[in-house]
Backbone:
């Protein structure tokens, strides 16, 4: 992808780039897959010119948490369909979790993923498992995996329950400067839970997942990282108390970073029994289908309204470093079952940036902060120093956004194979209209 | 007329008018049980399928008798005879049933929302006969019908529900219906069986000990303790539970002098309720059973006898 | 409004006279039968039955048992009815085996209500005989059913609506005929 010598000139953009602390009108010249020049008025006879007429240019979003399902679950998603969904949503790099079949616990699987990704429009970054087969018993061969191209280690979907194993994983990974991405969950407290333990679970008799199940494991993970003085990253924080633990750890100097998903920022537990609350939804859904809709089932679950506002606050003040989708595709029939039996997870790649723009409209984030949470910080956490910002010399990975484009979320139009979104029918304002990877336009609306 | 829904999925969103009209209809159906020929032709030619994924002889029989007394053709399908065991999904199962053109499907299922799931799928009318720990609307309505034989269903009445609230659909359906009628509801359970967050639901009074829940109440509803749950560490022993939460004569004396005692059955005598109380003239447990048939006749009739608009 | 399109057929005074005559005919024809009972079809049939019971009691001292019959569960038009049926309580606190039943309704029209009522009565027991008393027979029967006691015959076309009002439910007694299309939607006055 990167060995092209063509050049592209973006004129009259509003360049928003946290890496350079820039939010201004600019022209941007992309040459040979890199950012070549940024200026008030650039002229180039060689370059193809795109007049953006004030549209936003931001570094391509980097999703450090997606499930691409390949190898093993290609009926849900493939690396190619997942990458197409990514660029349609403004993501230029996506880091894919290891819970495939076979699990990405060996260099062979990592290489397979990268091989499959060669034709993909987005950059695919394999995350390796922490333990062999994700069995929580034996560490993977981290050195080998890093050499093959693994960018991080994670047991996502599960927790590493054995604290000694987690300790060794943290210690050993620090040797390669690769982060551990921890899905924090106390299994005994999580038990058979399916939704947040709160008023809705109490009222509807659905088994609850207490925030305690998450908080307890966040505390354990932070204490290990603090004791060992190594970095750790907390996946999809969903609770107010989790935020508090991370904030206080950061204040003590613990090298902890954390991410949050759009669904945890926009929905609370009420969505489980009334998907229409607060929003006008697809009118084709019957009232019975708005209740116990399995598109609201994910782990961690949609929490209380108080948790949602704490997450928003934490994203604004930087306690939460990154927005990540936890894109978890499932086939429609797998979700068309009793709530208890449905698999956890929702897709997010094609709605995340638009929802993030809402955070700007709702004055939770400034455009610059948004650029940091979507691109700059995720790149830094994953140690990707060639991207995340549009400084001269960096990869020409970017998204062009029409901030006022009105559209309605229609899963039927997703590039992803899966349709399991809780945002069906949401009215959005602002959308990615073009995505560029290594200087090439890979998506046009 | 109050009740015009396609399905009866729960009591949670029934209006007071709907509840009262269901009870009023049920009142008219009681008399049929006293006739020499306990059968009316109202639902002749209609098919009612009792789709039971959980064993429940009582509820199923009650629905079956109700359907038959209305002259409907009642067919029972239980999980062991249906194809569910072969790994078919619930929606596949109901698609197959729908293809046989039933008029009413009565469903009992161990998971919350199963009735809602099929109601959104099929054209047949759906009656929820229990979905997980969520709702069991006909049980709550028959409980109200039974209370109404002794007390006025109006603000000022106090009902205590004691037992495993967390896992009880009977408790939930009763709570919603009682609250809608403006009746005071006290709930009491061991802390391990009291769902966290219940105290935040407006109108529900949570009592830690049965003595507090019983003080001066007009109606006592004891819930069945599912002994098979014991391995889940919810209470240390049956003996301990019976000692602290069981309803015996001394405890019942704390209630109003004319308080009635209810139990959805089947009872664990000597556990949640002593035989002395269960067999006393304060207990209306058998009235609940006979009212169950009348109430279910009313529900089946109001759903199945409706014209299509 | 629509009131002026109503053609009064019987006044309150006429209704009283008709009931007296029907009561006399019933008593006369059944003087020999020991087990005679009155059963009114809800709603207006019950009001009329109560009046007949009182007239007979006053005139002859004979106290006839009175039953109340709701025929909703026996109707043959439930599936085509566009309204939501209301079931009311049937009260027949005596055995029907071997008795003579006087079935009382306000209007005889298609005969379907009477058919449903008879089915219901037969499910209650085995009456010796069933006789039918109606205040108005408006013709256009659809079933082979005729009344034994009739207050007044009002030949009306299916386009007409014959309404019986009784003091117990409507505040006054009156029988009227009016064109069907001029009936206000919320009208609940009795018609079979
Ligand atoms: Zn996870």
Residues:
């Amino acid at each position: 992808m990167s060995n092209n010598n063509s050049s592209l000139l973006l004129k009259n953009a509003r360049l928003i780039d946290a890496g350079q602390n820039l939010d201004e009108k600019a022209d941007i010249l992309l040459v040979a897959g890199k950012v070549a020049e940024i200026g008030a008025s650039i002229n180039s006879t060689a370059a193809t010119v795109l007049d953006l007429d004030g549209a936003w240019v931001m570094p391509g979003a980097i999703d450090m948490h997606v499930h691409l399902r390949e190898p093993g679950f290609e009926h849900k998603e493939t690396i190619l369909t997942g990458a197409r969904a990514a660029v349609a949503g403004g993501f230029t790099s996506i880091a894919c979790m290891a819970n495939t079949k076979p699990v990405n616990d060996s260099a062979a699987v990592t290489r397979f993923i990268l091989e499959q990704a060669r034709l993909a429009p987005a950059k695919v970054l394999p995350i390796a498992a922490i333990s062999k087969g994700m069995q929580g018993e034996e560490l993977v061969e981290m050195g080998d995996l890093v050499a093959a191209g693994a960018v991080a280690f994670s047991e996502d979907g599960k927790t590493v329950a054995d604290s000694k194993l987690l300790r060794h994983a943290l210690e050993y990974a620090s040797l390669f400067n690769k982060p551990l991405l921890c899905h924090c969950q106390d299994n005994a407290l999580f038990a058979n839970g399916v939704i947040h333990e709160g008023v809705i679970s109490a009222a509807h008799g659905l088994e609850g997942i207490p925030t305690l199940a998450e908080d307890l494991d966040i505390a354990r993970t932070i204490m290990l990282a603090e004791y060992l003085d190594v970095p750790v990253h907390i996946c999809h924080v969903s609770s107010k108390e989790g935020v508090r633990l991370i904030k206080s750890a950061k204040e003590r100097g613990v090298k902890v970073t954390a991410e949050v998903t759009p669904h945890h920022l926009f929905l609370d537990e009420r969505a489980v029994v009334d998907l229409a609350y607060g929003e006008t939804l697809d009118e084709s859904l019957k009232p019975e289908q708005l209740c116990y809709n399995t598109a609201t089932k994910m782990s961690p679950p949609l929490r209380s309204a108080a948790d949602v506002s704490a997450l928003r606050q934490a994203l604004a003040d930087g306690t939460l470093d990154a927005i990540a989708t936890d894109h978890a595709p499932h086939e429609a029939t797998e979700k068309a079952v009793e709530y208890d039996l449905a698999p956890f997870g929702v897709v997010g790649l094609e709605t995340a940036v638009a929802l993030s723009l809402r955070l700007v409209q709702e004055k939770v984030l400034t455009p610059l902060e948004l650029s940091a949470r979507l691109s700059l910080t995720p790149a830094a956490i994953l140690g990707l120093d060639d991207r995340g910002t549009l400084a001269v010399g960096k990869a020409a990975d970017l998204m062009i956004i029409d901030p006022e484009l009105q559209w309605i979320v229609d899963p039927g139009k997703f590039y992803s194979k899966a349709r399991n979104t809780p945002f069906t029918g949401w009215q959005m304002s602002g959308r990615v209209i073009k995505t560029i990877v290594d200087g090439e336009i890979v998506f046009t609306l | 007329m109050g009740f015009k829904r396609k399905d009866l999925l729960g009591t949670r969103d029934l209006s007071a008018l709907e509840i009262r009209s269901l009870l009023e209809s049920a009142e008219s159906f009681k008399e049929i049980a006293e006739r020499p020929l306990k059968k009316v032709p109202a639902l002749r030619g209609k098919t009612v399928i009792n789709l039971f994924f959980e064993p429940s002889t009582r509820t199923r029989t009650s629905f079956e008798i109700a359907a038959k007394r209305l002259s409907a053709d009642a067919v029972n399908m239980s999980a062991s005879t249906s194809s569910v065991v072969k790994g078919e999904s619930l929606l596949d199962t109901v698609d197959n049933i729908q293809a046989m053109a039933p008029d009413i499907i009565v469903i009992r299922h161990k998971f919350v929302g199963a009735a809602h799931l099929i109601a959104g799928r099929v054209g047949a009318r759906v009656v929820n006969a229990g979905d997980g720990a969520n709702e069991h609307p006909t049980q709550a309505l028959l409980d109200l019908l039974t209370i109404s034989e002794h007390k006025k269903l109006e603000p000022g009445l106090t009902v205590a529900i004691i037992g495993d609230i967390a896992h009880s659909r009977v408790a939930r359906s009763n709570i919603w219906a009682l609250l809608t009628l403006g009746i005071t509801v006290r709930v009491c359970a061991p802390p391990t069986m009291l769902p966290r967050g219940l105290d935040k639901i407006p109108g529900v009074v949570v009592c830690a000990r049965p003595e507090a829940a019983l003080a001066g109440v007009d109606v006592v509803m004891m819930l069945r303790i599912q002994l098979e749950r014991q391995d889940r560490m919810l209470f240390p022993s049956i003996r301990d539970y019976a000692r602290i939460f069981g309803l015996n004569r001394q405890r019942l004396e704390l209630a109003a002098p004319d308080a009635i005692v209810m139990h959805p059955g089947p009872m664990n005598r000597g556990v949640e309720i002593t035989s002395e109380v269960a067999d006393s003239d304060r207990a209306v447990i058998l009235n609940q059973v006979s009212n169950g048939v009348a109430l279910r006749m009313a529900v089946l009739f109001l759903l199945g006898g409706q014209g299509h608009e | 409004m629509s009131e002026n399109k109503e053609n009064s057929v019987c006044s309150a005074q006429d209704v009283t006279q008709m009931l007296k005559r029907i009561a006399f005919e019933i008593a006369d024809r059944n003087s020999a039968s020991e087990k005679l009972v009155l059963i009114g079809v809800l709603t207006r049939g019950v009001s009329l039955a109560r009046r007949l019971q009182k007239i007979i009691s006053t005139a002859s001292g004979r106290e006839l048992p009175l039953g109340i019959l709701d025929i909703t569960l026996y109707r043959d038009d439930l599936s085509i009815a566009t309204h939501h049926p209301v079931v009311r309580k049937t009260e027949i606190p005596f055995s029907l085996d071997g008795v003579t039943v006087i079935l009382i309704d306000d209007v005889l029209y298609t005969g379907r209500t009477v058919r449903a009522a008879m089915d219901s009565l037969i499910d209650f027991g085995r009456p010796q005989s069933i006789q039918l008393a109606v205040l108005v027979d408006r013709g256009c029967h659809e079933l082979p059913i005729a009344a034994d006691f009739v207050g007044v015959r009002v030949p009306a076309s299916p386009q007409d609506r014959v309404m019986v009002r009784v003091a117990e439910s409507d505040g006054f007694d009156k029988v009227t005929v009016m064109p069907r299309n001029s009936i206000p939607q919320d009208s609940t006055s009795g018609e079979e």
